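To illustrate the input format used throughout this study, we show a single complete record. The first block contains the structure-token representation of the backbone; no residue identities are included at this stage. The design step must infer an amino acid for every position from geometry alone.
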């Protein structure tokens, strides 16, 4: 067991998740010289990070752990599929993808969760996705953590939903009801050629923060925070970066019933990379 594995296991066992995440956010954003370099090197070893993919592979140039964690990749390694309607917004592993049935989405075998609760509890926000489609991508610590636009679109609204910070690993996904509607999340609505498309960035234990390209790092608050952007011309093209996670989590994409189908090979546990087909 590497030092990184031991540290994560120990702290997760002994510390409440909210406290752990707060501590993680502070420590990973602080320059700590040789100790930072030690953490980064252990992280690379623990999760078998391929440095050949990294745009800047000079480890000594990263002053904090998070500087490395949100590393950019060489752009040619994530080509954007131009033949499909929309692409996967991030690297990761498919949790589930398919039809939103009677206002419910599949979390795991025997478990589902509410569409309305996922997007913040307002029926007006959820009804355009009734009988629509969804794709859920889990990001492990080893994955590239920047999030990209699945399709050309204009940002119209975001809803920050405060919540818990439970881990989103396989054990919790398979056993904890309503995991994605309990955890903190940022729900982003875009106007696109296929109708309203929603990208939900779900927080989790050890996620120091959720960061967006249009408003920076999201501050954790007590109540719902709704921001509208209809009068601002904030547009992104297919494949443009729209945010990132500081540590692993989940991205759920929602789209309307007539907006296209889930790519046939997007099955549970399939590893995917940003830019490959998602909606066809």
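Output of the design step:
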């Amino acid at each position: 067991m590497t030092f990184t594995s031991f540290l994560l296991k120990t702290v997760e066992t002994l510390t409440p998740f909210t406290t752990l995440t707060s501590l993680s956010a502070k420590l990973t954003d602080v320059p700590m010289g040789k100790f930072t370099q030690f953490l980064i090197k252990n992280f690379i070893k623990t999760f078998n990070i391929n440095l050949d993919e990294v745009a800047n592979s000079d480890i000594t140039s990263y002053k904090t752990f998070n500087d490395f964690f949100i590393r950019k990749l060489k752009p040619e390694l994530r080509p954007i599929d131009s033949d499909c309607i929309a692409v996967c917004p991030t690297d990761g592993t498919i949790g589930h993808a398919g039809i939103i049935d009677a206002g419910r989405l599949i979390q795991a075998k025997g478990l589902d969760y509410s569409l309305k609760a996922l997007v913040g509890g307002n029926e007006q926000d959820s009804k355009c996705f009734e009988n629509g489609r969804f794709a859920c991508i889990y990001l492990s610590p080893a994955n590239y953590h920047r999030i990209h636009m699945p399709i050309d679109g204009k940002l119209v609204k975001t809803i920050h939903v405060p919540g818990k910070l439970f881990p989103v690993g396989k054990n919790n996904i398979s056993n904890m009801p309503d995991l994605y509607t309990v955890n903190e999340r940022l729900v982003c609505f875009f106007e696109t050629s296929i109708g309203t498309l929603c990208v939900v960035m779900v927080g989790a234990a050890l996620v120091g923060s959720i960061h967006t390209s249009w408003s920076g790092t999201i501050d954790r608050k007590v109540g719902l925070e709704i921001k509208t952007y209809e009068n601002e011309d904030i547009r992104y093209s297919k494949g443009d970066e729209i945010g990132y996670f500081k540590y692993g989590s989940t991205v759920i994409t929602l789209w309307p019933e007539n907006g296209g189908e889930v790519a046939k090979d997007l099955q549970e546990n399939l590893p995917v990379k940003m830019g490959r087909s998602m909606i066809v």
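Structural context for interpreting the output: Residues 80-279 form one domain. Confidence is low (pLDDT under 50) at residues 7-23.
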